[in-house]
Design a protein that fits this description.
Radius of gyration: 24 Å
CATH topology of the largest domain: D-Maltodextrin-Binding Protein, domain 2
Strand content: 15-25%
Shape: elongated
Number of domains: 3
Helix content: 40-55%
Number of helices: 9
Structural class: alpha/beta
Largest sheet: 8 strands, mixed
Number of strands: 12
CATH superfamily of the largest domain: Periplasmic binding protein-like II
Order of helices and strands: HHHEEHEHEHEEEEHEHEEEH
Distance between the termini: 51 Å
CATH class of the largest domain: Alpha Beta
């Protein structure tokens, strides 16, 4: 039996907006229509998709699985509409980016909008794990990551490579040095981002290779928090060299005997790599 698209659309709206009234507002149709379409979908296949708990709704196990499918369906539906409306000229639509930091991301957005000024762009920032997951969950179209991804579902291309450097405050004994051995980090109070951070991953991989034990003295879930902690003299931080912003109380030091690097890459779902807006973004960013 053929599934009815409008029934799927109503179910998806309810799951996405966590309620029937909010779903009706999002679809610009009446709430009874949404309720009826979801009920017909459940009855047609003899399943329970949405569990009503007073004014709250929850997805059943089948409902949650179907929601994963409808995310892809609605994304492809939007892409088809954008393609047809623009006649291949990409004059409408929304590009959703996820990035590990604003530095390269804002540069990329500027390049893209210079060629496609009518496209709307949104951006979510997070660590590498969060950023990748947003693409896998179809919350974002393109991820700007700082490491290679070993996942057959993901297509990625390199953008740039940067050294990771140590930074300390003016009162630290290392301040003013040009280089430091990675072995000197052993036992030092390290101020690091949370697990999933690109710079932390790069440092830990290099330290493991050099057989140097490194453990965070303080773990902070934001770049700004790490910088403030180092500025206050609580410990030593690490950062990609291009992300370091000159500060009168902070100084950077390069590693003398270890390659500690982050590789920035543009990534998207393999199945969506030929999406017009994704291809346009990749081309505008990677073409000199």
């Amino acid at each position: 039996m053929a599934i009815v698209f409008t029934h799927l659309r109503s179910f998806h709206a309810v799951a996405e907006n966590r309620g029937f009234t909010a779903a009706a507002d999002a679809l610009n149709i009446s709430q009874p229509t949404v309720t009826t379409q979801v009920k017909e979908l459940e009855e047609r296949y003899g399943v329970e998709l949405i569990v009503r708990r007073g004014r709250r709704i929850e997805l059943s196990e089948t409902g949650a699985a179907l929601f994963d499918v409808t995310k892809r369906i609605m994304t492809l539906h939007e892409e088809a509409e954008e393609l047809l409306l623009s006649s291949g000229k990409l004059e409408t639509g929304m590009l959703r980016l996820a990035a590990v930091g604003p530095f390269h991301a804002t540069e990329m957005v500027a390049r893209f909008l210079a060629k496609y000024p009518s496209i709307k762009v949104s951006m979510l920032l997070g660590n590498s794990d969060q950023t990748l997951q947003r693409v896998l969950d179809l919350e974002s179209d393109v991820a700007i990551l700082a490491h290679a991804v070993d996942d057959p579902r993901i297509a990625s291309v390199p953008f740039s490579t940067h050294d990771v450097v140590v930074f300390v405050n003016v009162e630290h004994p290392w301040y003013g040095r040009d280089e430091v051995s990675i072995t000197e980090l052993a036992g030092q109070p390290l101020i690091l981002r949370e697990v999933g951070s690109t710079t932390r991953r790069a440092l830990e991989q290099a330290a493991l290779k050099a057989n140097v034990p490194v453990r965070p003295f303080l773990e902070i879930g934001s770049r700004e928090g790490v910088w403030k902690a180092v500025e206050r003299g609580l410990g030593i931080g690490v950062v990609a060299d291009f992300e370091f912003v000159a500060h009168p109380r902070l100084g950077t030091i390069r590693f003398s005997d270890a390659v500690v690097q982050t590789e920035y890459r543009l990534s998207c779902l393999l199945e969506r790599r030929h999406s017009p807006k994704i291809e346009a973004f990749m081309k505008s960013v990677l073409t000199p």
